[in-house]
Amino acid sequence: MDWGVNNNNNNNNHFRNYKEDNDNSTMNLVLVSNMDPVNIGLASSENPLPVNSFKPRKKTMTSVYLKFFETAADRQTRKCKFCGQTYSIATATGNLGRHLANRHPGYEKTGEAVSNTATRPTAIVKKSQPQGKVNQIDYDHLNWLLVRWLVLASLPPSTLEEKWLVNSYKFLNPSIQIWPSEKYESVLDEVFRSMREDVRALLENVSCKFSVTLDFWTSFEQIFFMSVTCQWIDENWCFQKMLLDICRVPYPCGGAEIYRCIVKVLKFYNIESRVLSCTHDNSASAIHACNSLKEDLDGQKIGPFCYIPCAARTLNLIIEDGLRSAKQVISKIREFVIELNASPVISEDFIQISTAYQEGTWKFPLDVSARWSGNYQMLDLVHKAGKSVDVIIRKHEETLGSRILLSSSDKSVVNIMHQYLEPFYKTTNDICTSKVLTVGLVLFFMDHISDTIATCRESRPSPEWLKSAAEEMAKKARSYISQVCNIFTYMTAILDPRIKGELIPDSLNSQSFLDEARTHFIRNYSVNHFSSMSSGYNAPEIEDGGIVSFAEEIARKKRRTNLSSATDELTQYLSEAPAPIVTDVLEWWKINSTRYPRLSLMARDFLAVQATSIVPEELFCGKGDEIDKQRFCMQHDSTQAILCIKSWIQVGIKFKFKSTEIDYERLMELAAASATENSPSSSEKKPK
Asked: Is the per-residue pLDDT at 389 higher than 50?
């Protein structure tokens, strides 16, 4: 057949910020030994060592100031230990004192905190607390919070080397020590490895097939990246999605290199034998890689495998062909809308005028992205509020200029394009908001798009420029249908209870596909469940003289019964009317799995197959711009760790360093408590 953990071990004390001490001391000096910063944050806490209070020897004014400055090797300059500001060796100590007072208020309270940590421990002095409690500030907690911030904001560790950012922390508290970027990189790499092991353990317990999707982009360093994501439906009929890896595809970034990266990822997670499909981005290199993967899996006789193009990218290309004739007009409207968004006065005028003309209600800011949602917003604005747009441009001509005033021919193009593309906008809106975007539902939408294009091409009133655009759109639609027209997508489509055989495209709806689907269902989801019944018999299948053995006769009767029962499941399912389009597909199967026990197993596998290689909203809407910016700007040495950790956190994988879970909720509680304790308002309320 052609197939076209948590392991925190109650170690919450790893991140305790508050420690109890003896009441017999009026001031405590907490010594933080000079150790690796990571170990500070993760080691078990002990009670701080009490140090007897003493009366410091009186120092000269010069020594008080100079201890906060380092003298250069050439003995010509001094450098501030807080901010790095340099002064001539001849600078008066009074000027140095004014620098400390203006730039680093409270510097005198830090004692020896800024002295060389390589030679002795750092001392942080905290005032005694009522009831014997002492606040010990562990500045390593700040570094762990910054690790989390880097991940969630998709920022490289080098961000924290920014001088003004470091100085801002020093201004708040001169004793704060930020890790060097190399330390952040090593911590992130270790967290990535720890969490990846948890992901692998999770996938080993999945009992159904996986669907894989590929996405590609190029960074500002001209490095080609590929993300590999897997999807499946769990035993509770909930859709699951997990980023497996971010791969740096080596030069020349062709199909062979992509194929090797995919295989490496699948082998690491030990799921190569359980992958049912791969959805690619429609590029020639990705198609070549998927074809190589299919040949590899077919050669190993692992099971059926198919690769399909991304429907969202195909639809986006189709829409771009349709918009080509209106690009100049859309650019003109976008310039107007940008000014509208930027000026509260102009936008308020527009709201009042559009209300007076009854041209709709508009919420600012309007979408001005260059993606499909923004382009359609431009057409929609002029189509529905054309009079208001003209009045505003004329009223604020000095600000807006007359160049963006639309002519009658411009408005005609807008109205024609709006009418033609409205079904496309509704389709993409439904695709973006669909809870589970099945292959069957996407084929249903794409069939409707093909009909819309054909109607435009055959319509006599349609202008020639629009018919020409529709012709190009039709070519891409036909190419997509030809790639997905196979038995694999047929089975995926009919297992959607909203589609079945009635709403499937005509190009897929054939008796031969139905017969092949029955064969596949019986062979893979019925017979295998009973093969163990006869596998224990060692007697020959045919006795001497050609007489069938008694055991084999029983086995054959069993098989015939099971085949009939399995066929009846599929026949009964297809004979019933499709469910309404608004039906929750997974909920439907969860309820009906008892009626179709074998067919539901097949549905769990095939409904996980993805029609798109990317989240549609990220392609059609402005949300994708932010993702593209983050990916483009990330440095190659931190892209894999940061993007993977961020994705894993979002799906509930615990943030771990080695075997220790980092309890960020506790860290945030301690940070909030510390901020409250040290705020001026709280200090005023303390009893003297």
From this structure: yes
